[in-house]
């Protein structure tokens, strides 16, 4: 079987992390062997090391360990992951079949979700970055990227939708 890579992208507050977690639980109940990596943590540092491609380097190192143990399916969530599909697939080193989704949500929905975990100036900055990311994803994602509106859906419903897209 070819290696499979699911990329879950979307603005902050769109439900990426929750969807990945719910999808993990769903696949575990189905006994589908897979790994989940939250891409935000692969290069979380200050100052930010993006120009060094640290996320890709760390993904290559981590995925090598999963691959050695026989894993062939990866769920990777990160805001702009669908825009980095080629780089992330290359980092895996085994030419995966890529499925990319972008989760979307309105400003009101995002505000409500982010207000539960941020406050004050951090909340406002998070909202600003979230809006900028949404605009970039809308503009730069290719038509092959599957778009899923999460405004009126629960995380399990979003996970079920994503699951229906996968041949796993």
Short summary:
The protein has 168 residues and is α/β, with parallel strands linked by helices. The protein has helices at residues 16-29, 54-68, 85-92, 107-115, 120-140, 155-165; strands spanning 4-10, 35-38, 73-77, 97-104, 146-149. The protein has one domain (4-158): P-loop containing nucleotide triphosphate hydrolases (Rossmann fold, 3-Layer(aba) Sandwich).
Report on the structure:
This protein is of the alpha/beta class. It has a single domain, classed as 3-Layer(aba) Sandwich (Rossmann fold). Helix content is 46%, strand content 17%. The protein is built from 6 helices and 5 strands. It has a 5-stranded parallel β-sheet with strand order 2-3-1-4-5. Helix 2 links the parallel strand 2 and strand 3. The chain is globular and about 45 Å long.
């Amino acid at each position: 079987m070819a290696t499979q890579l699911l990329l879950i992208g979307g603005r902050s507050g769109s439900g990426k992390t929750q969807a990945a977690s719910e999808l993990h639980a769903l696949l575990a109940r189905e006994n589908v062997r897979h790994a989940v990596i939250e891409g935000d943590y692969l290069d979380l540092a200050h100052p930010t090391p993006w120009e060094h491609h640290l996320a890709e380097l760390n993904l290559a190192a981590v995925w090598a360990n999963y691959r050695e143990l026989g894993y062939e399916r990866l769920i990777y969530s990160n805001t702009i992951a669908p825009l980095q599909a080629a780089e992330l697939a290359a980092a895996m080193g085994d030419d995966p079949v890529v499925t990319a989704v972008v989760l979307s949500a309105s400003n009101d929905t995002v505000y409500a979700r982010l207000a539960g975990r941020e406050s004050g100036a951090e909340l406002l900055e998070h909202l600003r970055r979230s809006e900028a990311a949404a605009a970039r994803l809308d503009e730069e994602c290719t038509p092959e990227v599957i778009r899923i509106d999460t405004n009126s859906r629960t995380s399990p419903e979003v996970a079920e939708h994503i699951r229906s897209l996968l041949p796993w």
